[in-house]
Amino acid sequence: MKTTNDYSRLLCMAIVTFCLVFTCSCGDDKKDDPVVKAPTLTTAEASAITAATATSGGNVTSDGGSEVTARGVCWGVAASPTTDGSKTTDGKGTGSLTSSLTGLTANTKYYVRAYAVNSAGTAYGNEVSFTTTAQEPGTIAPELTTAEVSVVTATTATAGGNITNAGTPSYTERGVCYAVTANPTTANTKVAVAGTGTGDFTANLTGLTAGAKYYVRAYAVYSGGTVYGNEVSFTAQNQIAAPVLTTSTVIDISATIATAGGRITNVGIPAFTGLGICYATTANPTTANSKVTYTFDEPGVGPFTVNLTGLTANTKYYVRAYAVTSAGVTYGNEVSFTTSSAGEDPTNPGSELLLEAVYSHSEEIGENLVIKYEYDNQGRIVKVTRSDRNYETITYDASGGLTTQGLYNNEPYTTTYTKDGNTIVDGDGFSTHTLNDQGLPTESQYDNTKYTYTYDSKGNSLYFYGSSYDNKKGPLSSCTSPKWYLFLFIFYERPFLAGYVNNPLSIGDVPYAYEYNAAGYPARVNKPYGGGYYTFTYKEK
To answer: Where in 294-430 does DSSP place strands (E)?
Structure first.
């Protein structure tokens, strides 16, 4: 018969047996896990010793069962140097490595150890020592600093330094060196910069990898070796920057043609390789729709225009400027326009007129000047073209201002006129104009000269720069163009426009004689001297 003590003994034996089995089981599991040890390595003896530099290195013979993620040499003036002090970083993995020790002091003993890092920690090789050479009597090392890196793109940057002491004798080479590891030397990538003496210098770093971090040091080579400035770092741009562009208002619109364009404000990184306008009868056109490519020599900022042809009359089109880069296509904002109807009445002031003015003068026999005017669907003048190759385009904004662009005497120009209430100011600050409630100019200030204008009850000018005008019927009698702009046309001695906008009774107190066609529009203006005259014919665009 078993007693209580017997049962107790059996229970104890069972517990002990379970613990032994569990312990053995755990021990078996541990046998399956590899044991990671510190790397094994040796340190190379120093060589190529100068007053300021030396070469050492080592050999990582075993990674200890885990990848070596960093390796190099560390040094100092005390025994057993560690990576907390001066060190190089020379790649990863096993095998031999060569390290450049720089910035050393002449005639000084240094201790060196190779090191390698894995998941178990940092291991060091055997310690070696060396003594830098003494400088030649009277030799002084150059002194320099490294400048902060600027103008950083995905592939380039601008670096540099400042020589504060050229050394004795003076250095023989200067520049910057850079690498993706700390403490770069001339053994890495370097850019030598021509020049001597003290002062700032700059260098262009190229061939960078987008998103990579770089370390940079200025350097100077002298008879005692190579000295380095402080270390700076930067990161190349990680993403390619898209071009920035806008789409301009479409002008010179007729039944089948129009002029579109845009403006580049940032060429992108890298710069765009293609540029143009795409358009369609549906919103958000792309280069898969109709497009016109703009030809350029070098990518840059500024406006551009192209001609859209083969359009359909009385049709709404959507337009976007585009720029092509290695990353794809970037689009500007969307604008729209509607082509005119074919065959509009050319005697209708709101129609698409082309006014052709032929000028002849007795002193310019055979040199007739032909001026053509083009209008938009609102009757606003948008382009003036002369047979002598001079031209001007006009773009209107919603506030009542406008921008003129053109060519005069073979010189391109752009002028922007802004409107604030009843005041007009040109972008060059040359002139300021004050308008009345009818939009007619009452005062103009040109630098230090001021002109004042008065009108009768019908809006006829009583005095304008020694001239008077009579607002008779003309093709722009109901034109919605800003009157101040038409006034500017007149003021800048363009009587071919004044001839049909405001018919001058006299210019400079000299009378002009007018002839009209059956529709009541000016057909001919006879000049009072020299037998000169203007003729006007009206055509469809």
So the answer is: 302-308, 316-325, 328-338, 353-360, 369-375, 381-386, 391-396, 402-408, 411-420, 423-426
User: Could you give the strand order of the β-sheet that contains 121-131, starting from the edge strand earlier in sequence?
Assistant: 86-87, 70-76, 109-118, 121-131
The reply to whether the predicted model has a pTM over 0.90 is no
Rounded Cα–Cα distance for residues 35 and 118 (Å):
13
Query: Where is 57: in which H helix or E strand?
Result: strand 54-62
Per-residue pLDDT at 131: 93
Q: Please identify which residue in the block is written with the tokens 């001026």.
A: 371
Residue 453 three-state SS: coil
**pLDDT 10s digits, 363-392:** 333 455 666 666 666 656 777 776 666 777
- Helix extents (H) in 415-475: none
| Confidence at residue 81, expressed as pLDDT on a 0 to 100 scale | 94
Let me know: does 319 contact 285? Beta carbons within 8 Å.
Answer: yes
Residue 503 near residue 490, CB atoms below 8 Å: no
Q: Choose among 307, 296, 247: nearest CA to 274.
A: 296
Please give the share of the chain, as a percent, with pLDDT higher than 70: 68
DSSP 148: P
Look at residue 535 and tell me whether its pLDDT is greater than 70: no
- pLDDT greater than 80 at residue 455: no
| CA 432 – CA 418 distance, rounded (Å) | 10
Per residue, what are the HEC states of 287-310?
CCCEEEECCCCCCCCEEEEEEECC
HEC string of 188-228?
CEEEECCCCCCEEEEEEECCCCCCCEEEEEEEEEECCEEEE
Q: What would the pLDDT profile of 303-345 be if each residue is shown by its tens digit?
A: 998 989 888 888 999 999 999 987 789 999 999 999 876 544 3
- Provide the pLDDT for residue 281: 96
Q: Does residue 355 have a pLDDT over 80?
A: no
Cα–Cα distances (Å) from 492 to 94, 174, 450, 488, 497, in that order, read: 81, 59, 15, 6, 10
- Provide the token pair at 127: 């310690």
CB 486 within 8 A of CB 501: yes
Q: What is the mean pLDDT of residues 359-366?
A: 40
Q: Are 107 and 54 in contact (CB under 8 A)?
A: no
What pLDDT score does 121 carry?
A: 93
Q: How many CA atoms lie within 13 A of 244 on its CB side?
A: 4
Cβ within 8 Å of residue 169, ≥6 positions away: 139, 222, 223
Q: How far apart are CA 63 and CA 65, in angstroms?
A: 6
Q: What are the C-alpha distances in Å from 303 to residues 239, 245, 403? A: 26, 9, 12
